[in-house]
Specification:
- With 167 residues, the protein is mostly helical.
- 40% of the residues lie in helices and 5% in strands.
- The chain folds into 2 domains: 16-32 and 117-159, no CATH class; 37-110, no CATH class.
- It has helices at residues 43-48, 51-54, 56-62, 81-89, 92-95, 97-103, 122-127, 130-133, 135-141, 148-159; strands spanning 32-35, 112-115.
- Strands 1-2 form a two-stranded antiparallel ribbon.
- The protein is elongated and about 50 Å long.
- It starts with 31 loop residues before the first strand and ends in an 8-residue tail after the last helix.
Length: 167
């Protein structure tokens, strides 16, 4: 029997084995993804007042969508993962926030990890029992409708002293 290769996080690459590891490897298994979204309701107003330019260290990280770091629906990631990892270790996210937050969003912590359905028919499929009949596909494509997002919230909230408020 062949053993599945694992990523540096200890998770297997995307395959059927992920259905058993979704709680422990939600990003590697494709359940969750880095997404472009503002972290504060006041972001649009702050962006209009020029905070993206006058306070880039805070605004570009807190308000990536409103500040134009990334667009709605964009997958939030590094443009060059190796360089970005090195630069972020050298504190370039603070020293050069405009460049780093736009090009190294993942390494600089700009990305918000979100757990959401990726297809519009997920609720209907879940109601038809597809989460149980076809878990390999459904738990990745429709984690919200199949209840996996809630399980992840509970799992991570208890794993880190109840301080994490969302995935």
């Amino acid at each position: 029997m062949r053993r599945a290769r694992h990523s540096p996080t200890g998770c297997p690459p995307y395959n059927h084995a992920c259905s058993h590891r979704n709680l422990h490897c939600p990003v590697a298994c494709g359940v969750c993804r880095g997404a472009c979204k503002d972290l504060h309701d006041d972001c649009p107003g702050w962006a209009k007042k020029g905070e993206c330019a006058t306070n880039p260290g805070f605004a570009l990280k807190t308000c990536p969508y409103s500040c134009g770091v990334c667009g709605e629906g964009d997958v939030c990631k590094d443009t060059n993962s190796t360089s970005c990892a090195i630069w972020s270790l050298n504190d370039e996210c603070s020293a050069s926030p405009e460049f780093m937050h736009r090009n190294c969003a993942g390494s600089c912590g700009v990305c918000s990890t979100v757990c959401e359905d990726k297809a519009t028919d997920c609720a209907n499929w879940a109601a038809d029992g597809e989460c149980e009949k076809n878990p390999d596909s459904m738990l990745t494509k429709c984690p919200q409708s199949c209840g996996l997002c809630h399980q992840l919230e509970v799992f991570y909230r208890t794993a880190i002293d109840g301080t994490k408020d969302e995935l």
